[in-house]
Amino acid sequence: MNDTLLQRITLNPHICHGKPCIRGLRYPVEFILELLSSGMTTEQILADYDDLEYEDVLAVLLFAARLSQVKSIHKIAS
């Protein structure tokens, strides 16, 4: 099921500057994560954005979880 969910996240250099988006729509993963982190529930997001599906939100969370599974993080000079 995880692979099926991750297929909902697409990368296209012509959509949202190549950022990971949901199903080729103009909803970047980061946007949905920001909504969730601001306190919106999945149900509220789905009510506000009719073309999104419950599985899209799950795919965003799975994608973010996979990105966080790095071995180490190195600070870049500021």
Automatic annotation (TrEMBL):
Listed Pfam families: DUF433
SUPFAM superfamilies referenced in this protein's UniProt entry, alphabetically: Homeodomain-like
Name of the molecule in the record: DUF433 domain-containing protein
UniProt organism field: Halotia branconii CENA392
